[in-house]
Amino acid sequence: MGSSFTEEKGIDSPVTVGFTMNPKGEKLTVKTVKDIMESRSMSKILIAGMTNVEVTCKVDEFPIKYEPIAFNFFGVNMGVAGVGYNLAKALTALEDQVKIASLVGDDMAGNLIESELNALGEVSLISKKLSQTPLSVVLYDHTGARRIYCDLKDIQETPYDYSEIDITSYDLVVACNINFSRPLLKKAKEAGIKIATDVHVLNDINDEFNREFMEYADILFLSNEYIAGNERAFVEQIAEKYNNEIIVVGRGSAGALMYVREENKFVDMPAAKAEKIVNTVGAGDCLFATFISMYAKGLEPEKCLELAQKAAAYKIGFDGAAKGFMELSQLEK
Fold first, then answer.
1. CA distance linking residue 267 with residue 287, whole number of Å
2. CB-based contact 240:273 (threshold 8 Å)
3. Mean pLDDT on 22-35
4. Which of 9, 46, 63, 189 is spaced 20 to 30 Å from 137 by Cα?
């Protein structure tokens, strides 16, 4: 299969293959962020994903030297995070019309999440059905290395009721790889709505937990954490089995690898230069959100990925998974 692919480096194609329509149902032709801002071509996006409260703690190095207590002034912070929240915040910054379906508990953490979502505008479709709200703790050092402890509580066993959501009113459905988003996959596919998902860390194309998400995804993202050095062959296997429209593998400081089915080609995109590295948590969510936002607005894939790399490089200069998302006007510069 590998010999049938073509390959490109960087950006050299002006072709627009996004799917934004104007109110008359006519396809928009946009090539730059400036075109998007002038046309006001904003997309309506439904997210189904986790929201949680996160505590970040800066450490000197890994492995951590044992000490009974360490004073870490302004090195410990708390905020709302979770893939669903990160995507909602990033997409809102890019001026998309966002709704997020999520599950939390009826507790202090759940109330904090509700308050932060309300601050983003009318985006919240949260349901307080969990016994407790999910929590996470992130340890990170000055190089960006990190260790995440994630307590999902009972979110994987609790369903979300989508009966009141009109899925046909959305341009794109973002189904995060968590159990309560699974019912959206079939609904979106039957309604002809594009599906984007990020399966994060993967080393088996037949992975039992993620297989359904890979089957339904039009736009599929994953990390190279377990497949470094073997990204292309791994993507070829995914493309052959699941026939996704676009597959992107995030490679951190090495950039990203993208496969575009329509043009049957690979694009090897270098990372944008980061001015500083504070915390890499949330960079993958930023990459994913920026790409799908730009693609839904009508930009061609290579340009989407270039802008996503730019946004991710900016994002890692901030502490916290939900901080440092670029606004649309910043991407244009």
1. 16
2. no
3. 53
4. 46
The answer to whether the beta carbons of residues 139 and 146 sit under 8 Å apart is: yes
3-state secondary structure of 289: helix
Which amino acid would we find at residue 325? F
Pick from 190, 65, 197: which is nearest to 139 by CA? Answer: 65
What's the pLDDT tens digit per position in 37-94?
Answer: 556 567 999 999 999 999 999 999 999 999 999 999 999 999 999 999 999 999 999 9
281 vs 318: CA distance, rounded Å: 9
For the chain, what is the radius of gyration of the CA atoms? Answer: 19
Among residues 147, 142, 36, the alpha carbon closest in space to that of 95 is found at 36
Within the chain, residue ranges assigned H as helices are 33-39, 83-93, 108-119, 182-191, 211-216, 231-242, 283-297, 301-315, 328-332
**HSE-CB of 128 using CA atoms within 13 angstroms:** 10
Contact call for residues 265 and 259 (beta carbons, < 8 A): yes
| Number of neighbouring beta carbons within 10 Å of residue 223 | 19
pTM over 0.90: no
DSSP letter at 261?
T
Token pair belonging to 243 = 């026939």
Of 26, 20, 24, give the one whose Cα is nearest residue 41: 20
* Cα–Cα distance for residue pair 100/49, rounded to 1 Å: 7
Q: Can you tell me the distance from the alpha carbon of 130 to that of 147, in angstroms, rounded to the nearest whole number?
A: 25
